[in-house]
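Bumping with the actual sequence this time:
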Amino acid sequence: MAPRAVIFGLSGVLLRPGLQHFLSACERDWNLPRGFLEAALDSGGSQSPKSRALRGQISLSQLQEELERRCRAAPGAAVPVPVPVPVPVPVPVPEGFSASRPFRELRSRSRLEAPLLRAAQTLREHGFLTAVVANWWLDDTAGRSRTAELLQELRRTFHLVLESCRVGAAKPHPDIYSRALKELGVEPQEVIFLDSRERDLGPARALGMVAVLVQDTGSALRDLQRITGIQLPGRDVALPTAVEPHEVAHGYVQIRPGVRFHFAELGRGPAIVLCHGFPDCWLAWRFQLAALAGSGFRVLALEMKGFGESSAPPARLRPSGAAPEDPQLRLSALLPAAGRGGGGAGEGHREEPENPDPIQRGRGSTPVRARLPPRPGERGPLNWYRNVRENWRWALSARGRTIAVPALLVTAGKDPVLRPRLSHGMETWVPKLQRRHLEECGHWTQLERPAELNRILLEWLRELPPEPLPGNSKL
């Protein structure tokens, strides 16, 4: 059957950021362990405060009161927290703690995704039925008028808005999916279901719906357009969520006396380490951090040695040239474009104005202004180039070896420095290399085309086969 209905999840799809984002922010601000508040909300399974609130058995104010009691049960209250050893961790609730804060911030700071609302309206104009299935609670707090406005806006756009608290069942319970199908009057095979959590897509997929995992707005729009065949508005300017410095955890690791790495961290699950180039810092990955963390990964964006808050050698290094086993050939001869900016496909500048027009393709500019953290200067970053001869000699020790693990290379058609042709023959050293290409993009792919790059990264990660741990790895 051809699709004729589209059902959207709310939190993490139409409404961003979702509750998990604000729970994590509160944990960081109050120095609580990661997952502390979520564990307090979910402890008890189907009878947890969150589960009962989503089924409408208690109101939002009662949910907040119960969360407050759980967190303040006793000095150093013990709440099960995800740790390597599954035991309760004593956590003193700090002064100023308020269980209502993440819910207040969800109301005041989350926004409906305008491109998806426009897409839903376009789908309606083409004869599609549209619906929202929301895990939501009965809001009886002082901020309930904002919740009412949100729901009213959804009802103006969609044929059906199904709140879990009104029907007594919440995702992923099959009853709420069946209720949506019945009220829309459609068969499962006629439905496209979009959600940001894989566990909530499982029942939809089991019923026969087309299930779409939403990583960001841009990829959701592309998937909808591909499946429905309908041109949707706004997809070229839709940006994924970007994190700010205060929205991630920051840490330091000492690798030897006097040398430390600074990193930004977000999410839980298998670890992904992101390394930037010159002259960036960890914030170059701001569009990828949220997307990868939201897909079940623990993401650590390093600041390389010499950059940002990571250590830089105090002594001046001797400048040197470098070339393939030829110390007389200068680096500038190998990279003639480096002296002309080396940025994107055009001017190589680093920022756009405060209110940019829709992103100019391939001009090397970032789509939003970043609030850069304090930087100690360029001496540390430039030391990588001053030390290039020694680095080259060290790298030659690996000559003849191959990289056996799966790898992904994303090239850019308008990159004047790392041109796609320079990677020809790379499979000789990286046998499991896969390639992707962004034609209308300059040097900084993660900033110039964040939605497309996120989609490429997540698709590649999801397709990776399970690999045995290396022989020297420890569980």
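The tokens above came from a reply further down the thread. The domain at 5-16+110-228 is CATH 3.40.50.1000 (Rossmann fold).
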